[in-house]
Design a protein that fits this description.
The chain is α+β, with helices and mostly antiparallel strands. It has helices spanning about 1-15, 15-55, 65, 80-90, 130-135, 165-170, 170-175, 195-205, 245-250, 255-265, 285-300, 310-315, 315-355, 355-365, 370-400, 425-455, 455-460, and strands at about 55-60, 95-110, 115-125, 160, 220-225, 230-240, 250-255, 275-280, 305-310, 405-410, 415-420. About 50% of the residues lie in helices and about 15% in strands. It is elongated and about 110 Å long.
């Protein structure tokens, strides 16, 4: 206790140098906590978006993730309704689960043949009510307004397409899509088509059926059924939505689950390409995944099924989180080096200015170890006080940022979301930052303390 009081008195006596060192540590703690809170907010925000759209877990054919996009019908899950019922009835999984719903993916060609245009698309058949429940998942308390699917309350033949699909199929006008340019193909130089070919094309042109007029917002979706034969469905496009990624925006078609099943399987027994499982809390994911795999082995031993989590299904999640983690580590290392040299310089100057004091302490019986402990304790006190004040200031700044009304556009989003910094809800990050800076300060004071302890009593007293 005497050493602690003496260390505190020495820091108070050299206020200017102590305050300068404390300021550097406070700024370092603020930088670590604010950027760490920002990176954590990005992590949880991305996780929330992926879980809302694709759930925590998906049950798929074991080869569908690698090969299924080329032929989804070949990797369907038979008896998916029985599997969903088993998941909902399982005593271990039922308390953890919020939604269990099937989806059906398909590939095909969408055409607006009235305009003479078509393009390849990727369709996704979903159960609308289940998807709307999934959109309300918000385990981390973000300020979000859940948006229901545009297919809510629409008939079975309705569909929603990406903005890129609407642009190519020339549906921007009927769907009232703003800022959607019309195509202007380049004129081709060359001779006119022969007269007989032109006459044949005119004779075979499609004549609309007067009894079933074609709406301006209708498209035909051509897809291969389960037997490989082509099948066509006429869909009423109710809206065009941006998907956040241009590649997906140019391919996406969302339709009702029943309509997708009729297109692919017709009168055959319908299947699903995935069973989506959304949990109440992400912390339950490892236990739920393990139990789900065991349950599938019991209920469907004849089907080669796999359970994939959202991070595996969305590789961009790990890439983005890893990038921000690397940046955070670099910033923490840089600040640690700055604190190391700042505290070390302060302690070195203190040794030079307090040589006489050191000699006096040694003369009255304080051993070398006591001198080392005194200076190391001073460095640790600087670290504790600096990191503590830095935590308080960081919490205050985080509160101001969270209530400033700032927004940003996360990767894959089409609308800005509130910009928040998650510091208060991260006790582990706060404790590790405070302890880390305190330890760095103590370590940086060790070398000057060692030099002070090596001073000879007579040599130190000569500086009087």
């Amino acid at each position: 206790m005497n050493t602690l009081q003496l260390a505190a008195r020495n820091l108070a006596r050299n206020r200017r140098r102590s305050i300068t060192t404390l300021f550097a540590m406070i700024v370092g703690a603020i930088a670590i906590l604010l950027f760490g809170g920002y990176a954590r907010n990005i992590d949880l925000g991305l996780q929330t978006g992926f879980v809302q759209r694709s759930g925590h877990l998906q049950v798929q054919h074991k080869d569908y993730f690698l090969f299924g996009t080329g032929n989804p019908a070949a990797y369907g899950i038979a008896g998916y309704s029985r599997l969903i019922a088993a998941i909902k009835a399982d005593p271990q999984l039922a308390p953890l689960v919020t939604v269990v719903t099937p989806t059906l993916s398909l590939g095909g060609i969408a055409g607006n043949y009235a305009a003479g245009v078509s393009r390849t698309v990727i369709g996704n058949g979903v159960v609308i009510d289940d998807q709307n429940v999934m959109r309300r998942w918000n385990d981390y308390g973000f300020v979000l307004t859940p948006k229901m699917l545009k297919l809510t309350g629409t008939p079975e033949q309705a569909a929603v397409i990406g903005l890129g699909v609407a642009r190519v199929l020339q549906l921007c006008g009927p769907l009232k899509v703003a800022h959607c340019p019309s195509p202007q193909p380049a004129k081709q130089d060359g001779a006119d088509a022969p007269a007989d070919i032109t006459a044949l094309a005119a004779d075979t042109a499609e004549v609309p059926d007067a009894g079933s007029p074609r709406a301006a917002n209708q498209v035909e979706l051509l897809a291969a059924n389960a037997h490989g034969a082509p099948n066509v469905a006429r869909l009423d496009v109710v809206a065009a939505e941006a998907q956040g990624v241009k590649e997906l925006d140019d391919l996406y078609v969302q339709l009702h689950f029943g309509a997708a099943q009729r297109l692919i399987y017709g009168a055959d027994a319908p299947k699903a390409t995935a069973i989506v499982v959304q949990l109440r809390h992400s912390a339950d994911l490892p236990a739920a995944q393990q139990r789900l795999a065991a349950l599938l082995a019991q209920v469907a031993p004849d089907q080669p099924l796999a359970v994939l989590d959202f991070a595996t299904l969305n590789p961009s999640y790990g890439q983005i989180v890893g990038m921000f983690g690397a940046i955070f580590g670099f910033i923490a290392l840089l600040i640690g080096v700055i604190v190391l040299f700042t505290v070390g310089n302060t302690m070195s100057m203190a040794v030079v200015e307090r040589t006489t004091e050191i000699g006096t302490l040694r003369a009255i019986g304080l051993r070398r170890g006591g001198v080392r402990r005194l200076f190391v304790l001073e460095g640790m006190l600087l670290g504790l006080v600096g990191s503590g004040l830095g935590v308080l200031v960081a919490l205050a700044l985080a509160w101001l940022i969270n209530h400033a009304g700032l927004t940003w556009l996360p990767p894959g989003n089409v609308e800005p979301v509130p910009l928040t910094v998650r510091v208060w809800g991260e006790p582990r990050m706060i404790v590790l930052t405070a302890i880390g800076l305190s330890l760095i300060a103590a370590v940086s004071a060790w070398w000057p303390a060692r030099r002070a302890a090596k001073l000879e009593v007579v040599e130190a007293l000569r500086h009087v």
